[in-house]
Design a protein that fits this description.
7-stranded antiparallel sheet; 11 helices; 12 strands; 334 residues
Length: 334
């Protein structure tokens, strides 16, 4: 475990729910976010730093950061129906569960569920990012993801240990936190929020070992009719909430089968296909003279992009120029 900071995983100060040197005063705010818990401060003396709690929502995933300012053990008592992913942002963190204690440096994550009966171990400079998923929704995503499933509750390994998994999860968390911190993120965009929530669940299922992966061996083929249903649905709902699970449900196939069909037919994933179509719609609006009274940000936001830096990067990758260059070049012809 190392004393360092994982840049980009902190919610901004506008998300602060409470900052106080009194843990008792902070407890109600913490319990509203994470349920009841038992706190056991270690060592003598008061808190070295204030308790700080920040919180936001990403769809139905609760996103929070916690800093307790002292050596402390936190035993959650409110994990019923939840899957909790805890990522060390700063300092050292630990989790005791199942007779063993796991340690994490910055950027490394623990995954815990009610049956694990975890206890979290924090030091004075520790800050953690917690994502609280509804377990039922993650299990439903598994049903849509795999063609065959064991008849057992979903359970993840406790420590995200593989370097590739840590890197991929950290990159996704940075994107989510950056999107939430964006200046215009005070007006949630339903398209991006739905997509990010699904992406978080699918990524967690894809990179972290769990007991449902035994159903991943067989992938059934998608029929031409199923593929056409998927494509038609995407085209008809581009300005609405489109999720991978929703496309698969309409097509009557699993998420994995759908992904393989798009890769074979289009050379891309279903959601990359959706993104390309939305970028094409944005480009069509930018070259239409009647759209001149709308800002590029307004148009991008309508099609699901609220992080303008990310939108500009994807637009340029797709078309070889920025959105501003597209609009300026078109206006020069009038």
């Amino acid at each position: 475990m190392f004393c360092e900071t994982e840049a980009g995983l902190l919610l901004s100060d506008r998300f602060i729910r409470i900052a106080t040197p009194d843990l008792v005063q902070a407890t109600p705010a913490i319990e509203r976010l994470q349920g009841p818990f038992i706190a056991r401060p270690k060592g003598a003396g008061a808190l070295r730093e204030p308790v700080r709690v920040r919180a936001a929502d990403c769809g139905r995933v609760a996103v929070s950061t916690f800093h307790f300012g002292t050596n402390i053990e936190i035993e959650p008592r409110g994990l019923e129906g939840a899957i909790l992913v805890t990522t060390a942002v700063q300092g050292r963190a630990g989790m005791a569960a199942g007779g063993r204690t796991l340690g994490a440096s910055s950027g490394v994550s623990f995954i815990s569920q009610e049956e694990d009966r975890p206890t979290f171990l924090y030091e004075p400079d520790t800050e953690v990012l917690k994502l609280r998923f509804e377990r039922r929704r993650v299990e439903e995503m598994c049903v849509r993801m795999y063609d065959n499933l064991p008849d057992a509750p979903l359970h993840f390994d406790g420590l995200m240990a593989q370097p590739a998994a840590v890197q991929r999860w950290s990159a996704l968390l940075r994107f989510v936190v950056s999107s939430l911190n964006a200046p215009n993120a005070g007006q949630p965009c339903r398209l991006e929020t739905a997509s990010m929530e699904e992406l978080l669940m699918l990524t967690l299922l894809g990179i972290q070992p769990h007991n449902y992966q035994g159903g991943a061996s067989r992938v059934r083929s998608v029929t031409p009719r199923q593929f056409r249903l998927a494509v038609d649905y995407i085209n008809e709902h581009l300005d609405a909430d489109i999720t991978l699970a929703g496309i698969a449900e309409v097509a009557g196939c699993s998420i994995r089968s759908l992904g393989r069909a798009f890769q074979q037919s289009c050379g891309t994933s279903p959601m990359q296909y959706v993104q390309k179509l939305r970028l094409q719609r944005i480009r069509a609006e930018l070259v239409r003279p009647a759209s001149g009274d709308r800002t590029i940000a307004d148009i991008a936001f309508h099609w699901g992009y609220r992080h303008l830096g990310e939108f500009n990067r994807k637009y340029r990758e797709c078309f070889g120029e920025t959105p501003s260059e597209t609009r300026q070049r078109n206006l020069a012809h009038f």
